[in-house]
Amino acid sequence: MDLNDEIVAVWPLAGFDKTLHYKIASSMAKGVFEGSLVRVPVGRRFTLGIVVETGATADVELSKLKMVSQVCYDQAIMTKPLLKLAEWIRTYYGAKRESVLETMIPAPIRQGMSPKRDKYVSAGEAPSPEDLAALERRAPKQRALYDFVSQQFKPQKKSLILARLNASAATYNGLLKKGFIREESRVAERVAYEDDIGKVEFADENEIVLNDEQSEVAESLRASMAKGGFATHLVQGVTGSGKTEVYLSAMRAALDKGQGVLFLVPEVALTPQTVGRIRSRLARYSDIQTVVWHSHLSDGERLDGWMALASGKAKVVVGARSAVFAPIANLGLIVVDEEHEPAYKQDETPRYHGRDVAVYRAFLEGVVCVLGSATPSLESYRNVKRGKYAIDRLTQRVDDRSLPMMFVVDMRQEIARTRKSIQLSTLLVEKLRDRFERKEQSILFINRRGFSSSMLCQDCGHVEVCDHCSVPMTYHRTDETLKCHLCGDEANAPMRCPSCKSPKIRWKGMGTQRIEDAVTRVMPKAKVVRIDADTMSRKHLFREILGDFRSGKIDVLVGTQMIAKGLDFPNVTLVGIVDADLSLHIPDFRANERTFQLLLQVSGRAGRGDLAGEVVVQTFTPHADPIQFARQGDVDHFLEVEAESRERFQYPPYRHLVRQVFRGPNPDKVSFFAEQFAKRVGERVGNRVELRGPAPCAIEKMKDHYRFQIWYFSMNVTALMADLEAIASEIGWPSDVIQVLDADPMSLS
Length: 749
Ligand code: ADP
Ligand code: ZN
Ligand code: ZN
Hints:
Blueprint: E1 6-12, E2 20-24, H1 26-29, E3 37-42, E4 45-53, E5 66-67, E6 70-71, H2 80-92, H3 97-104, H4 107-110, E7 117-123, H5 129-138, H6 140-150, E8 156-157, H7 158-165, H8 169-178, E9 181-187, H9 212-227, E10 231-237, H10 243-256, E11 260-264, H11 272-285, E12 289-293, H12 299-310, E13 314-319, E14 331-336, H13 354-365, E15 368-373, H14 378-385, E16 389-394, E17 405-410, H15 411-418, H16 426-437, E18 441-445, E19 454-457, E20 474-476, E21 481-483, E22 490-492, E23 505-508, H17 512-522, E24 528-531, H18 533-536, H19 541-550, E25 556-559, E26 572-577, H20 591-603, E27 614-619, H21 625-631, H22 635-649, E28 656-664, H23 667-685, E29 690-702, E30 705-714, H24 717-730, E31 738-743
Parallel strand pairs: 2-5, 10-15, 10-16, 11-13, 11-14, 12-13, 14-15, 17-27, 18-25, 18-26, 24-25, 26-27
Antiparallel strand pairs: 1-2, 1-4, 3-4, 3-6, 7-8, 7-9, 19-23, 20-21, 21-22, 28-30, 28-31, 29-30
Helix pairs in contact: 2-3, 2-13, 5-6, 6-8, 9-10, 20-21, 23-24
The protein binds adenosine-5'-diphosphate and zinc ion (ZN) (2 copies).
One zinc ion binds at residues 466, 468-469, 484, 486-487, 489.
């Protein structure tokens, strides 16, 4: 071995959680950093891996160490804090390191995809005046090409130059042979950040001057950033209070110091306006490049975006959950918009919560994290109460616009009065017609796609349930089918009850299609359009519809929670919540919280322009807390009452919940095994952890698998996860029982 060889520690991306050591030639070592991607031999194969330590020492003989065979990129693809973050996610969410790295690093980078190279041209050896004259005479096209190239300040892309001058390859090659121009191959600059998401049309805002409340909050954030170090601020601001402007002010403070910014939204596709606003405002502010990170990027765009951030060429990333892993080296600020959104939780391994990871990353980086919401999560509320987070409030809508007036309609009375089951109350119909006459717009919100929730036989009570899942099938009228929203199975809608052959079939409950129908019936002249997962399957349709809605071509928009987020349409003066109870009666301790958040978020879509807004809420339980507090817009009081009830039952956020699901095709086997597991855990953890179950999950059967769960309540998730992992590795695991561990679960079905 060469005395100058160094040792590096590597996490291989190869299906096992070990740290391996390699030698690296000193010449190569200069280009290797913590976070570099390298190719290394493992056994008789090669694999890629991340360097986690340079200048390491290994406890094996040096001569036994193999050499690093290749360094994939000339810059690190992860930062040091990101490496630490990976370890935290691994231990907290109980995932394999490989799966954590797979989630953190986008596939094209993880696979060492090479950046696309293009040919670039610049002027070569300067021709003498005689040469030029000769060129002019014998090859005028070459002369023209030479003149053009020699006037450029920097090398230009060959293909662009040829196209621009309409020059042929022969002309080009002639010049090249003479040495008057030079060609080099360079990494192409594809512009991932110029993606079209940001181009959603929205009124060009004049430079906005913050109002007093906004200035105060912005000042508080900036002061915290100036002080340096880690801090988390919860910005609690009513809908339309201008939170985005406040974030922008803090973002500029970071950018002014040359630092980068991470901005998270629950879903890029559903918040085009927020994303567009951030981009255009930053572009106007300086030539800082913003990378928009979303699921529709091509591999090439992903590679370029990632590398632009890793190299510091781009300083801002705006994106959904996974953008929290963007390799910004000199991070100055993290913003998490709509921090209460369940969409921040990933529902596959590693089941991390984007907001919580963001806070932890801010801690590792020693920077400020801003969480924004009109309806904060109980988790963040508790952290404010405990003094862990600072709170900044925005209590007013901008320009003294008033918050919408909310009317609660008791559907029990409505049905008693009309003596039939109806979808739209008299009040809602009245107001819809009124808006239509005044050429204002309305949004109707129903949290279920399809036509109705289930098929009910009026003679025998039969409800058609999916063969593979224990949930009722949903009736879709457009194609006369019954669909399972869990496994996607579908069948033709029956004309007669499959059980007793009675023709008396009733469609129970309602979905977006039924509401669309009902509105069309009461207002035949109005243009009604529906947005839900069914319409969303067509690319671009969502944005087209939003465009049509903005330009006034649509009178009533009917949709699921997809339309609840971040949309800002000044001409919307009515929002109807068709069935407020849908989210209220689910078996989840967050049912109240979710309902309250949905009500306020949806109603926040009304009255955002100069016209005041109104909200009609239809419910069978008008006196339920979330509905009453939402009617009064009383967020603080709701949080207080909800926190009390959570504390009484010692539910999160008072203790952490870890949920373990066991599933498999044989119900007896799954349940027996879950029992055994629970017993082992009980013996090991004693009274450090409270166990509940095993019991069948709310959805007992899903895609032909029977499901049982154990709930663990604990103050220390990492310790619990380590215990569960240890037990799982000791116990003989049947091949047809699968487990899923979920720390701080957001879905309990
Ligand atoms: P929020 O996120 O709190 O619901 P937004 O940030 O979307 O609110 O702001 C709502 C609207 O008010 C946007 O159109 C925004 O451009 C505008 N706005 C925000 N702050 C101001 C201000 N100080 N003066 C004028 N308009 C503002
Ligand atoms: Zn029947
Ligand atoms: Zn199914």
